Amino acid sequence: MNKLRRRSTINLVKELDAFPKVPESYVETSAFGGTVSLIVFILMALLTISEFFVYQDSWMKYEYEVDTDFTSKLKIKIDITVAMKCARVGADVLDVAGAVIASKELKYDDVSFEPSPKKKMWYQILHQIQNRLREEHSLQDVLFKSALKGYFSDPVPQNDSTSNSQNSCRIHGQIFVNKVAGNFHIILGKPIDTIKGHAHFASLIRNEAALNFSHRIDHLSFGNDVPGHINPLDGTEKMTLEQNMLFQYFVTVVPTKLHTSDVSLNMHQFSVTEQERLVSNEKGSRGVSGIFIKYKLSPLMVRVTEVHMPFSVFLVRLCGIIGGIFSTSGLVHRLIGYFVDIVCCQFRLGADQSEEVVPD
User: Fold this and answer.
1) What angle do CA 237, 239, 240 make, to 5 degrees?
2) pLDDT above 50: residue 143
3) Among 54, 134, 229, 324, which is 20 to 30 Å from 28 by CA?
């Protein structure tokens, strides 16, 4: 009884087979069919390998939300060289709340403004990357993925020139500010606090040559340090022969949370708009000559997440590739065979008619 039940079950399953079976005696093999089959298998293998690489790759997903953190401090890290003696310039931060962060946390080093050959090469590489970032924004995704892996993470090479002409001042260090709008400025004279407010003591500096604010920004970042992340102003160089130039950088800082397969951290990106003009009271262009980096914080926060293709999606795409190639190749093979049969029939028909017309 059990054997009969098994046979009846197998017969029932066979009757439910919806796929037509063609007997081997009805199948005609040909060189053309074998060639098409070989091409199909090669194409299938190539597309499968390509799909596997796509599955291994990842892309960055950007989401936006309101930044609710207003109590923490924001770190500003700067490394800038000004074409003046350190005794003649001063740097500090003044925010909209009236808080003044003095330059005690910044270091002043007398250096040569002319960079060393090693540093010139570093600038060239950095400028090429900056230009690519402006033209191809997808390069930023590559930099995000390579964060903390050592790419572009070497510190800025310092001048190793033997020149004794230390006619410039390197201002570098980090300061912590409130998360409100403010400006970091470098102007003539050392900063002092008075009863009336913030000022720079420059009355003893009367040499007009001291007002050359040519400068080079080696590094400017907000928030936590992220090796591999290139900031918009890194490597910026401004040269001028005028004595009363005002350089302004309007910066919008965007809080960013980065989540990749290797790292999860909080950072800050920023965009910048530059402006420079000559300060001349005679021409109606008023102001204070110097370098001003005016920053403000965006109320929105960007969440950057590295996304991978799910394995189920990979299987569905792979099945679609294999099934699509099989269906398309069979259709193309039948169409080509159909047209070949038509051409051959017309050729044979014409040959037969020509044989009948020939007289004995």
Assistant:
1) 155
2) yes
3) 324
Indicate the pTM of the whole model. Answer: 0.69
Q: Residue 343: exposed, middle, or buried by beta-carbon count in 10 A (0-12, 13-18, 19+)?
A: exposed
pLDDT in tens, 224-268: 877 767 788 888 889 888 888 899 999 999 998 888 777 788 888
Q: Burial of 122 by CB count in 10 Å (0-12 exposed, 13-18 middle, 19+ buried)?
A: middle
Q: Give dist(CA 50, CA 48) in Å, integer.
A: 5
pLDDT bin (cut points 50, 70, 90) of residue 150 is: very low
Phi/psi of residue 321, nearest 5 degrees: -65, -50
Q: Are 324 and 42 in contact (CB under 8 A)?
A: no
Can you tell me whether residue 138 is helix, strand or coil? coil
H-helix segments, the chain = 2-15, 31-56, 117-135, 139-145, 311-357
Residue from 218, 221, 219, 217 nearest 269 by CA: 221
Cα gap 325→176, rounded to integer Å:
61
Distance CA 160, CA 305 (A): 40
3-state secondary structure of 303: strand
Smallest CA-to-CA distance from 272 within 130, 162, 129 is with 130
What's the rounded Cα separation, in Å, for the pair 200 and 171? Answer: 16
